[in-house]
Amino acid sequence: MAVMSQYQPPVKDIAFLLEHVVGYPDIAALPGFEHADLDTVVGILEECGDFMAKVVAPTNRAGDEEGARWQPDGSVVTPTGFKEAYQQYVDAGWGSVPLPEEFGGGGFPRTIGLIIQEMMMSANMAFSLCPLLTQGAIEALLHYGNDELKQRYLPKMVTGEWAGTMNLTEPQAGSDVGALTTKAVPRGDGTYAISGQKIYITFGDHDLSEQIVHLVLARTPGAPEGTRGISCFIVPKFLVNQDGSLGDRNPVHTVSIEHKMGIHGSPTCVLSYEEATGYLIGEENKGMRIMFVMMNSARLSVGTQGLAVAELAYQQSLEYAKERRQGRAIGATEDSPIIDFPDVRRMLMTQKASIAALRALMLLNASYVDHSLHEPDEDARKRADEIVGLLTPICKSFGTDLGNELTSLALQIHGGMGYIEETGVAQHVRDVRIAAIYEGTNGIQAADLVGRKLGVRGGASVREFLATMREVDGQLADAGEQFASMRAELKTQLDALEQATMWIFQNGMSDPNAALAGSSPYLRMWGLCTGAWLLARAALAGQATGDPEVAETQLVLARFFAEQILPQCSGLLPAVTAGARDLFALDASQL
Amino acid sequence: MSHVLVLVEISHRGHIADSARGLLALAARLGDPVAVVATREPLADDVVAKLGSLGAAQVYQGRSDAAGTALVAPQVEALAAAVAALSPAAVLVSHSYDGREAAARLAVRTGSGVLVDAVNVRAEDGRIIANGSIWGGNYLVDSATTGMPVITVRPGAVDESAPQASAQVTAESVTVDAATAGVIDSYNDAPEVSERPSLLGAKKVVSGGRGFGSKENFALVEQLADALGAAVGASRAAVDAGYSPQTTQVGQTGVSVSPDLYVALGISGAIQHRAGMQTAKTIVAINKDADAPIFEVADFGIVGDVFTIVPQLVEAIKARSA
Amino acid sequence: MRIVVLVKQVPDTSDVRKLDLNTGLLDRDAGEPIVDEINERGLEAALRYKDDNKGTEVVVLSMGPENAIKSIRKALSMGADSGVHIVDDSLAGADALVTSLAISKALERTGYDLVVAGNESTDGNGGIVPAMISERLGIPLLGFLVNMEITEAQVSGERQGDDGTANVHAGLPAIVTVTERFDYARFPNFKGIMTAKRKPVDTVTLAELGVDAAEVSSLDRTEVISAVERPARTAGTKIDDDGTAAATLVEYLATNRLV
Asked: Looking at the partner chain, which of C125, C140, C164 has a beta carbon nearest the beta carbon of B180?
């Protein structure tokens, strides 16, 4: 289908990372993934990318310009083209790829599922949220639902015929989810009557699917305070009859939708539950555990949103920089395309290298998810799970922080045109902004890294990972002079990261506030080091391919990142080790 | 001199196709032109006279009851019979819908190579050489065959005419094997909407792109075309959007044109579009995007709004001719 | 009913295509190889018939170098049942006569009720191979169709002509060529891609098709005598419209006797 698309799926870059950097062949060798060899996977990704570029990407502008609309009858209508694109998405089966074959999925690794998400998010971030939330609900059901619930809901959710949502937030319970008050009263027939109001419900209602399956956190009567008293329920928009057909409308209604800065195509709903029928997932008061299952997965996906929107904005700014002629570059005899100016080059290289680093980081995390679930050896699974725990807050925060910074650079390249909505690049800046906020703000991610993840196995888990990163040093030493500067910088910066880590170990227990004060810059140090480390590995792998073009591209990206971006890392060390003194030295009234 | 056969297509309404003039002119350059026709009835005098005036010294008529109802096959039989009778040096056929198929089928009969979409032919060292441009004129290619060539010629590529001749008619009955031919049930003639020239072989072409935004706005393209006496073309994007019929599509997968003047209105100039028009002698482009690639091939470009400029152009051209 | 769809792998038209100036042949390394879009439209037409008529078998047939298997797999992932790949080093640079001979032999071997081809490829633009196949197989050709209806016994549709269209039909077996008026092809879906890996592809050489070297050498050959790259067009005058651009353009046209 010959629809022009702004988005060019970076399947070649992805295939390179899979094969040479994040060890995909090892995943394909795990039991159960015999059908998911690299060739098959790349073939699938090419077709999927083509689909996202030609079917989903053309809906992106209309989604932003029209936005989702709340109708006076309480229903929600999605922007032009969403419904048709979603139907095609369901027909194509892209959502089912990483889900279990038992329920109609393709049984592919999570890593592949994440790449499909990335391409869909680039094509249209707002649109991609519907399948993303559906996948979250599916995972909760898979892990904690009883057989009856699974058989009733999963097959149609796996195909995408039914969509899902996640209902956590309430007006007084945002980052502090334990403050929620939605009630779940047992009816004695096994079902519960759910009552309360939920806000910020992504795709809480829409016209893309016939059924919406809400996952709702609520309290049963007499449940303990805080997070220990939260239970998780399924509340379908339409009750499901014994034969699987849709029955009565459940009393859950959309009271309004939010007017947001970005992702206009995604309806963010206020949902009112009025004794709606709900079905308990797992046990009462164990709702938070279920949420934690989904949390790593959802946070990695949101981190990938930062990458995905940055990729789209980068592609657009690169095209613009090639075409826009302004002034003369040094030595030019006629007007130059702005790509010939060094500062524009800097912005482009910063985007390209950072995007490469982020993608490697996201895929590395995803690959450890697969190892954590499928390694035959229990210790190997455990270790992989630790690494997932460590990398997830880094992926989420660093990915979305860079998402903001890189889309802003893409806009900057457009000059004044970038600030004008018609150009389309402003949309990316607005769209990606939310990713640093939702699914646990980036500050909460940093606190998670410092407060939970550093302490795993008394700090041994982190130290082992740092040691793994240092293993690249020997390979860089053997790789020749071209790799020397990268090697030296990586060593310097890993030293700084280790120093920061030691400081937190030494001070965190006695003065947790001091450790938390530096948590965000500390997380960024991790992002910079892991990114540079993975790019260095990519450069080594590029050299090993014997393809001079690949070798050059990978070398330059890694060297640029190591020499010109990574050094920020040690610059952050003082902020990490400064403690909380000056943050609290002024009274709130003085701020 | 040896004979050179030209397949003259005669429409179901009895009209001699426009391609006949140029084909006979090329044939006259290579040898004695023979017009080959396939018809059911004897040729009317005026048709014979017209063929003579176009340079055919001889008309070879393959008569078949299937002419007009069997698809292409009667022309193939007529050509095959003429080749057998006259042992020509070459067979020239229009690169039209019917022509290409007739050429291809004939070539299998005679085991001949086909040189497609030529814009010129010449005899050199006893060989007949066809010259054509491929991929939107990016390359110019001379080609030849080892035996008698069957050459299809791009419609509108030839400007010259052959010297007039007085045509002698040879009529032979030919037999069509009904099992090997498609059947024509009826014709849906395009309504003759205007005096506007057809895109194929037009001397001037005005094309519009998706920038017009609607079928109604696309009328501006037609107005300028009519003011210039030009054919109407369209980019693929405009065709896909339904502003203009598919038959007007200029480009890689549409019609390739080589007019004296090509005016691109609101067309960005994707590589596939340029492939269909960049051999035009003069290219004019109007586009509000100063960076549109069409300007890279335009002899005269205006960065501006087609909705403002085109009405002004129409007025100015009308004022000149008034 | 067995429908055989002819598929040609061509360089993507959105890439710059190169001619090897020494051989006059397509430089296949320049430009991403893809299924020619017109063939995808033909495949879509065949698949729609299959969607509505159980028991229909859709076979894709391609002649091309080894990597043309990729195009066959793509067609299989869209829903074709099996593939035939004619691959033979001696076919490199084959002209239409040879190509049509090889494909005709393969069609006889595979068997067919209806053959669906594109009206012309984007790399050759000849549009003559299907007609040659019809002649070789002695079956009717309905070329340049703008629409098509298939029944058990015949195929019919509107054929594009110079002055409009004609309604045409032919009894089966027959060969048709489709034009851009046919719909875009469906996207391969995930399940289709996975099952495509298990669908059979018959890879055949000329010898296996019984194409006799003597027969090939008895045919006239077309040869490229010379090929030159045309110098790229250069941009001429470009002005911003300040309200007088239309008048300036008319003067320009008048000077060049174009108005």
From this structure: C140
Best CA proximity match to C219, nearest among C121, C136, C126, C110: C136
Q: What residue spans in chain B does CATH classification 3.40.50.1220 cover?
A: 204-321
Give residue-wise pLDDT tens across range B5-48.
Answer: 999 999 888 899 999 999 999 999 999 999 999 999 999 999 99
CA distance linking residue A398 with residue A572, whole number of Å: 14
Residue type present at position A377:
D
C-beta separation of A56 from A398 below 8 A: no
Average pLDDT of every residue of chain B: 91
* B219 and C CB contact within 8 Å: no
The whole-angstrom separation of Cα A151 and Cα C66 is 45
Strands C2-6 and C114-118: parallel
Architecture of domain C2-218: 3-Layer(aba) Sandwich (3.40)
Average pLDDT of chain A is 95
Rg of chain C, C-alpha, whole Å: 22
Q: How many CB atoms lie under 10 A from the CB of residue A98?
A: 23
**Whether B71 and C141 lie within 8 Å, measured CB to CB:** yes
Length of chain A, please? 591
| Angstrom distance (rounded) from CA C152 to CA C134 | 20
A390-433 residue pLDDT tens: 999 999 999 999 999 999 999 999 999 999 998 899 999 999 99
Mention every residue, 6+ apart, whose C-beta is less than 8 A from residue C203: C69, C85, C87
Nearest-neighbour CA in chain B from A323: distance (Å) = 6
Which amino acid is present at A451? G
Contact A388, A368 (CB under 8 A): yes
Q: What are phi and psi of B288, to 5 degrees?
A: -80, -15
What average pLDDT does range B53-73 have in this prediction? Answer: 95
The ranges assigned to domains in chain C are 2-218
The two tokens of residue A528 are: 């910079």
Helix, strand, coil % in chain C, rounded to nearest 5: 30, 30, 40
Tell me which H or E stretch contains C3: strand C2-6
Give tens-digit pLDDT for C107-132: 999 999 999 999 988 887 788 999 99
Specify the DSSP class assigned to residue A9: -
Task: Output the pLDDT for position B191.
Answer: 67
Predicted pLDDT at B194 = 57
Condensed to tens digits (0 to 9), the pLDDT of residues A74-105 reads 899 999 999 999 999 999 999 999 999 999 99
Strands, E assignment, C104-208 = 114-118, 141-150, 154-161, 164-171, 174-178, 201-204
Name the residue among A302, A127, A119, A89 with its Cα closest to residue A206: A127
CATH 3.40.50.620 residue spans of chain B:
3-180
Which CATH number applies to B204-321? 3.40.50.1220
Six-digit token string for B151: 């050459």
Tokens read off for A67: 């936005």
Q: Which two tokens stand for residue C34?
A: 């893809």
Q: How many CB pairs under 8 A join A and C?
A: 38
pLDDT, position A189: 96
Flag if B142 and C247 touch (Cβ within 8 Å): no
Chain-chain contact of A325 with B291 (C-beta, under 8 angstroms): yes
Cα separation, A231 vs A229, whole angstroms: 7
Could you count the other beta carbons within 10 Å of the beta carbon of residue B224? Answer: 23
Which CA distances in Å does A562 have to A171, A493, A528, A591? 44, 9, 9, 37
Q: Which fold has domain B3-180?
A: Rossmann fold (3.40.50)
Whole-prediction pTM: 0.84
Sheet holding B282-287, edge to edge: B231-234, B204-208, B261-265, B282-287, B300-303, C237-240
Decide if A439 is catalytic. Answer: yes
Chain B CA closest to residue A324 = B291
- pLDDT confidence bin for B192, thresholds 50/70/90: low
